[in-house]
Design a protein that fits this description.
Order of helices and strands of chain B: EHEHEHEHHHHEEEHEHEHHHHEE
Largest sheet of chain B: 9 strands, mixed
Number of helices of chain B: 13
Number of strands of chain B: 11
Pfam family, one (chain A): zf-ChsH2
Protein name (chain B): Lipid-transfer protein
Shape of chain B: globular
Distance between the termini of chain A: 26 Å
GO molecular function, one term (chain B): acyltransferase activity, transferring groups other than amino-acyl groups
Structural class of chain A: mainly beta
Radius of gyration of chain A: 16 Å
Helix content of chain A: under 10%
Oligomer: heterodimer
Distance between the termini of chain B: 18 Å
Largest sheet of chain A: 5 strands, antiparallel
Number of strands of chain A: 7
Structural class of chain B: alpha/beta
Order of helices and strands of chain A: HEEEHEEEE
Radius of gyration of chain B: 19 Å
Strand order of the largest sheet of chain B: 3-2-4-7-1-8-11-10-9
Organism (chain B): Streptomyces liliiviolaceus
Pfam family, one (chain B): Thiolase_C_1
Strand content of chain B: 15-25%
């Protein structure tokens, strides 16, 4: 499986994920505090370079989804067709995260059938023990249905 | 002639030569050789010697650089060269950069080109090492790997939000295929498409099926830009660059544009505002359009962005044969990226020129205005061409 190619701006996200925390970058300037994603050096609203990583509730709704079919990279082809979702966070509708809807933290990418996925469905973040099948690599935020 | 300021570009330059190689899944020539063939064909079409060329423009994804092309083809001293980023978003900007250079006196004869061996070469998304960390770190580990997956995500949301259907996407694929069936140079010449073929084809990334995706192609194209004054003495009827624009919207994120306020109003909207502001005509006056079609849903998104219909109406716009010859807006009359060739949209530029010369294989009678666009979803560009 592909692991995140982390840049300086994104590194804190993955460090928090490794601890099982979903955190999003926010402006630390008093009176601003805007959330931003993907992370970047300064706030596009007030131009402050001070930022903090704010813990999210981990709740959200599915904004859109796709079901990729081969040709795909081998590790992904082996699980295809699987789903990829975009989740809009409950705290901030325009903070959207790409992820996978799965039946449990270490379940395969194809563990929830495409027919069961709906735009607008409520989801909750979970963290696997490692990439995809849970064997190795960084922990990715993944999503389970609030009402399976 | 051309002044400075907003009106400086309007009709100040013209496309006077176009050239192309054959299009196929596999061509024996290298990309460099194909580039040279297309460029020499375009200069021959214009009746201009390679030694007179002093400006070049292509895409950052073009593998053959200016130095190689200039020495192989025998150009003179170059005074302007430019490359435009973001893949297929750069196509029209190559012509726009040369038009600006010629209109402001930085150059006299410009050549834009794109050569590609995507048909026989590797799929670029398989090279995971060259992916930029942003935004790849937020998408690729989750299996959102290919451009088709990235656009399918926007498509699903578009269909959900506006009630557009797969039949609307089929209308796009069919219009392009019907035009390719009239074009002997097209890869899908003599290969008709039916609704049944479309609806039963294999998925690439649901909701996109095989026929929603462009063709993987080997081939190259080029065109020649000179001043309007010089154009009057060239072999071919001049096709004037009436207006040109690039577009990179605020808070945009490339092809995975899921993180701004309004992902369904993409770069087309930004480019269109500038394009129409500089133009003497409006969308209602466009006789024929060449709209970037790496994927069918880019057409309804672009129809909305460039103002041919209201927001959310792009799907319905495709109904009733609107995109066919004789329809409200004849589209991609060479077959486009979906059915002629996918050469990062450069074939759309040359087809726009053919329409305004009156030499298209699917000619729109009396066509005097043509919109050409580059890739929607990525930072983009567009041209208004006129006779």
């Amino acid at each position: 499986m592909l692991t995140p190619v982390v840049d300086d701006d994104g590194a804190p996200f993955w460090e928090y994920a490794a601890r099982g925390e979903l955190r999003v970058q926010a402006c630390a300037e008093p009176g601003c505090g805007e959330l931003r994603f993907p992370p970047r050096p300064c706030c596009p609203h007030c131009h402050s370079f001070d930022s903090e990583w704010r813990r999210m509730s981990g709740r959200g709704r599915i904004w859109s989804y796709v079901i990729p079919h081969p040709p795909l990279l081998p590790d992904y082809a082996a699980q295809a067709p699987y789903n990829v979702v975009v989740v809009e966070l409950a705290e901030a509708r325009r903070i959207r995260l790409v992820g996978n809807l799965v039946s449990g933290p270490d379940a395969p990418l194809n563990s929830v059938a495409g027919e069961r996925i709906r735009i607008g469905a409520r989801v909750q973040v979970v963290f696997g023990t490692g990439v995809g099948d849970g064997r190795d690599g960084p922990r990715l935020p993944r999503w389970v249905l609030e009402r399976p | 002639m051309a002044g400075t300021g907003a009106a400086g570009l309007k009709d100040a330059t013209a496309v006077v030569g176009i050239g192309q190689t054959p299009f196929a899944k596999q061509l024996p020539d290298s990309e460099k050789t194909l580039a040279c063939r297309a460029i020499l064909a375009a200069l021959d079409d214009a009746g201009i010697s390679p030694a007179e060329v002093d400006a070049l423009a292509s895409y950052t994804m073009e593998e053959t650089d200016e130095v190689e092309v200039a020495k192989a083809v025998g150009f003179g001293d170059l005074s302007f060269f430019s490359k435009v980023g973001f893949g297929g978003g750069g196509s029209c900007a190559t012509v726009a950069h040369l038009a600006s250079a010629v209109a402001t006196g930085q150059a006299t004869v410009g050549v834009a080109w794109r050569s590609r061996k995507r048909g026989s070469g590797p799929r670029p998304w398989k090279n995971t090492a060259v992916q930029l960390p942003t935004p790849a770190q937020w998408t690729r580990p989750f299996g959102l790997l290919r451009p088709a997956d990235e656009i399918a995500m926007l498509t699903r949301r578009y269909l959900h939000e506006y009630g557009a259907t797969r039949d609307h996407l089929f209308n796009v694929a069919l219009a392009c295929r019907n035009r390719a069936n009239q074009n002997p140079a097209a890869m899908m010449y003599e290969r008709p498409l039916t609704r049944d073929m479309y609806m039963t084809s294999r998925w690439i990334s649901e909701p996109l099926c095989l026929f929603d995706n462009c063709l993987e192609t080997d081939g190259a194209l080029a065109c020649v830009i000179v001043s309007a004054e010089r154009a009057r003495d060239c072999r071919q009827r001049p096709v004037y660059v009436h207006s040109a624009a690039q577009g990179l919207p605020a808070q945009h994120h490339g092809m995975v544009n899921y993180w701004n306020d309004d992902p369904l109003t993409g770069p087309a909207w930004t480019a269109a505002r500038h394009l129409w502001k500089q133009a003497d005509f409006t969308p209602e006056d466009v006789d024929v359009a060449q709209i970037y079609d790496a994927f069918t849903p880019l057409i309804p998104l672009s129809l909305e962005g460039y103002g041919f219909c209201g927001r959310g109406e792009g799907g319905a716009f495709t109904e009733g044969g609107a995109l066919e010859i004789g329809g409200r807006l004849p589209l991609n009359t060479s077959g486009g990226g979906l059915s002629e060739a996918y050469v990062h949209g450069f074939n759309l530029i040359n087809e726009g020129v053919k329409q305004l010369r009156g030499t298209s294989t699917a000619q729109v009678p009396g066509a005097a205005t043509c919109l050409v666009t580059a890739g929607e979803g990525v930072p983009t560009s567009a041209l208004l061409l006129r006779t």
